[in-house]
## 1
Amino acid sequence: MTKQTTEFSAGGYGDHETEFKTLFDTLGSALQNLIFDEAVTPAASAESGSAGQFCAVMILGHSDRVDTPGLTPEQRRADELAASTSRAESARDWLFDQIAELVLAAGGIVPADIASLQNVALPIAACGSADLIHVTPASPAERAENRRVQFFVSTFSPGTP
């Protein structure tokens, strides 16, 4: 079995921003290329049926700590979880759209939806503020770094020694 794993993050969301496409457009070309080279292209290749390849892209959504006065701890956690869930879902949906475009360009059959993918898995998880880069952010920039999505990409070909 041949397999490869890769991990990377894309961060810098504004407060309560969740749209991955908007974030992606602001990322530097090196990170944009990394996302395409390490996640989009291998997933599209696997979904096109290339030589028994499979690809799983786990997407974790993260939030900064909510410090809004007047909110209960439960309300703060709910807000953090909602933002991180939306970030992960948006990144997954964007990734699916990119995969579909490449499969179509290759002459393949585009899956109707995420559940219809045959050789690709796109699970998500929301982390809320459980894994902060900056536990006590000293600036808005540090808060933005906490608001991110993480990609864990695993590609494998079961029949290859």
## 2
Amino acid sequence: METNEGRVYFSLDGHDFEPSEITEFLGIKPTTVKIKGSIVAGKIPKMNSWQLSTDNIVNEYIDVFDMSTEIINKLKPVKKQLIEAKQRFNVSPRF
């Protein structure tokens, strides 16, 4: 039996923003924060990143639709703030 591994995440990426400001602005604690130039998992990020992620799942069957819905449900209440954050902090969203 083969197993698969996966997770779903949403991130806000940019060069010159402080991830803690995004956290305060949205009122949502990120799963992961990456700072450009620091070493993260043996890699050096080229930009800052604020990420909200599901748990990493290892299973024969992974329902990415359910995992995506989990993230979307956390972000729905702050939809307007996400749109404003894009401009205010000069970040790009990625799902």
## 3
Amino acid sequence: MVKKLLWSSSLLLIILGCCLQASAQANAGDFGYLNKLEGTWTMRTKHGAVMEAWVKRNDSTWTGKTWRVAAGDTALQQSVELVRRGADVYFIPSYTGHETFAPIRLRVRVLKAIGFVAEDLKNDFPQKVTYRFSSEKMLEARVQGTRDGTVEEYIFKYSK
């Protein structure tokens, strides 16, 4: 009886684990959830602002740019692409002044109506990027990773 109960419990855990893993994977068919990104998002800082603007290029590509604005001076910080390739979606940042030989490609692991999570834990920085919509006008972006042995996290609280 105990063996049968343990076998049933183990099987249930395996099935539940597979279901949870499958539900946490991004589905390229959910690419339309990214439509909430469209437009310009702004975060005010004590020295100016950080602005992020997103444009839908086609059915499989979004492009974004992030600027830092201070004392009337505007500096491009990064360019980003969100692209659908087959069954996968990738977040591909390019940092101004930090060009790399191979592009950084973080695979979008979760893509839901409330946002997305992209990661590549083998990359140094960033390893994980999370965008979360708390409303149609509020967006929080988190960028995490390790640079020169130090764990870094940046949080951007944008509004439209």
## 4
Amino acid sequence: MNHVLESVNDGSESHIRQFVSHWFGSFDRLSEESGFFTPFLADDVVISMSEGTFQGHDGFRDWYAIALSLFKSDCQHQLEQVEVQPAAISLADRRATYDVTMRIRLQAQTHSTSPMGGEPVDFLLNETWRVTVNDAGDVLIHEYLVVPFTQDSE
């Protein structure tokens, strides 16, 4: 089984890294519509952030509305660290599962009506995703955890 996992991992790690870069590049634009993102989220995705825990596509849309109310478009998500580790492989549904851990620097302007009062922000965040990749190379996010970076979280 190990050789199967290794062969799946060879191209998938690079593919997942490209997906992560594209995902955050799209977030930087922070368009009014969240529809671009939902095809990459499992129907039962669980998203945990400082704003709360959100479930499914409706939960993502709720969280996205909060993000739109806080931040102006043209944010900057700088990927400071991305690690992709195989978590499991299911031969039944032909999907490999990966844990993706990232350190992201978010620099953004806030709306004057937000709790940040229009001040610029510069956050360092730790993110952990659980993703699957199918035979066609489609990446699907199942779990999405974001916590502020602290020295203790290293």
